[in-house]
């Protein structure tokens, strides 16, 4: 049969498995399942630099194909699953893993089953999983229950687990650290990011450690991870039975990569801190209104963490800081319509009348 796969011009970013094939152990035997993930922008954020005196960059992972960093790990996990003959994959999810698993599985022509906590995932993410043909099951429990069930099913039935307890996920996600180093030509002094299951925290730490071992960087960044106050097991030092936060992507009470994350904190002189929902939403507003980057609430926590740590005197002037903003704002857009006092923002309605609009905008007619 003729190969009908369209040829991709070499100048187009080819996805992380092809771009970093040698570093990820990808060979001819691996069928590369890609939607072009990775290659996301590292955006200088002058508004955050002005507030802190540091050189602040935002790694905008919402620019991935399904709108979150999960795609970096999913291209790897689904490719490896297909390589091993899997016909179906399963995952537990607070939303973004299911969106990503659904898209990559359907692209590969296999089935994705996703377990999500009932009523606890953002509408955009639910829509993605359904649109991409996943078998979506709402579980009457929280994320941690879903992960226990997914593990149990993968152990006892012919489905392949693609949560971040699957090492292929972490391997794919480390590529974000490679990209940061390529742009900055060294590691940053600090790297800040949200922590849910702590898979991404672990992945970045690994990526940076490899770069140091390869001799392309001079240091490890201090890895600072942030959890929401109502969902901060690592900060508290014990699991949280009923995690609560507006940041649904990190509403996790018993992180899967807890031990790995503690080791990474140790190795990088890192830190785990807790942030209130109010501070998360304030940071969300700063990212939207001052930086021009629209994220979902969980993704703003690194910015809140920067402001908190900067205030505490931990971030020296001139330090290079990278903050990963993990998911796109369009997935969970309702928060943008909430003003600081919690009231709903209502756009002004006017008749078809330019003078009236000029009045609302405070414009004064130009005199000629
Ligand atoms: C999954 C996710 C996180 C948390 O990542 P972990 O690897 O579970 O710590 C944070 N933000 C968003 C948007 C996510 O989808």
From TrEMBL:
Ranges of residues in domain Tryptophan synthase beta chain-like PALP: 33-327
UniProt enzyme class: lyase
Family membership noted in the UniProt record: Belongs to the threonine synthase family.
Gene3D superfamilies from the UniProt entry: 3.40.50.1100
Keywords assigned by UniProt, alphabetized: Amino-acid biosynthesis, Lyase, Pyridoxal phosphate, Threonine biosynthesis
Coiled-coil regions, chain positions: none
Cofactor entry: pyridoxal 5'-phosphate
Function, in words: Catalyzes the gamma-elimination of phosphate from L-phosphohomoserine and the beta-addition of water to produce L-threonine.
UniProt keyword Protein transport, yes or no: no
EC number(s) recorded for this UniProt protein: 4.2.3.1
The protein, known as: Threonine synthase
Catalytic activity: O-phospho-L-homoserine + H2O = L-threonine + phosphate
Domain of life, per lineage: Bacteria
Protein's pathway: Amino-acid biosynthesis; L-threonine biosynthesis; L-threonine from L-aspartate: step 5/5
Family matches, as InterPro entries: Ser/Thr_Dehydratase, Ser/Thr_deHydtase_PyrdxlP-BS, Thr_synthase-like, Thr_Synthase_bac/arc, TrpB-like_PALP, TrpB-like_PALP_sf
Pfam families referenced in this protein's UniProt entry, alphabetically: PALP (PF00291)
């Amino acid at each position: 049969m003729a190969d009908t796969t369209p040829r991709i011009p070499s100048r187009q970013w080819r996805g992380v498995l092809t771009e970093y094939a040698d570093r990820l152990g990808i060979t001819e035997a691996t069928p590369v399942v890609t939607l072009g993930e990775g290659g996301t922008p590292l955006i200088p954020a002058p508004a955050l630099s002005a507030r802190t005196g540091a050189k602040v960059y935002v790694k905008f992972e919402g620019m991935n194909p399904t709108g979150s960093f999960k795609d970096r790990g999913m291209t790897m996990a689904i490719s490896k699953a297909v390589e091993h003959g899997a016909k179906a994959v399963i995952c537990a999810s607070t939303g973004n893993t299911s969106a990503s698993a659904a898209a990559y599985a359907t692209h590969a022509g296999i089935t994705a089953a996703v377990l999500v906590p009932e009523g606890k995932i953002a509408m955009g993410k639910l829509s993605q999983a359904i649109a991409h043909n996943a078998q979506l099951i709402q579980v009457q429990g929280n994320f941690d229950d879903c992960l226990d069930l997914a593990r149990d099913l993968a152990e006892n039935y012919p489905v392949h687990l693609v949560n971040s307890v699957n090492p292929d996920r972490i391997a794919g996600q480390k590529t974000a650290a490679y990209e940061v180093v390529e742009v900055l030509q060294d590691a940053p002094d600090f790297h800040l990011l949200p922590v849910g299951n702590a898979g991404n925290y672990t992945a970045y730490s690994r990526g940076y450690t490899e770069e140091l071992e390869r001799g392309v960087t001079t240091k490890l960044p201090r890895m600072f991870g942030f959890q929401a106050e109502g969902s901060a097991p690592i900060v508290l030092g014990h699991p949280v039975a009923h995690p609560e936060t507006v940041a649904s992507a990190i509403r996790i009470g018993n992180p899967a990569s807890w031990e790995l994350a503690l080791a990474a904190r140790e190795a990088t002189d890192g830190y785990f801190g807790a942030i209130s929902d109010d501070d998360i939403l304030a940071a969300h507003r700063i990212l939207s209104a001052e930086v021009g980057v629209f994220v979902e609430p969980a993704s703003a926590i690194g910015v809140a963490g920067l402001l908190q740590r900067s205030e505490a005197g931990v971030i020296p002037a001139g330090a290079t800081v990278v903050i990963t903003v993990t998911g796109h704002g369009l997935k969970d857009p309702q928060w943008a319509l909430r003003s600081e006092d919690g009231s709903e923002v209502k756009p002004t309605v006017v008749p078809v009348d330019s003078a009236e609009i000029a009045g609302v905008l405070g414009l004064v007619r130009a005199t000629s």
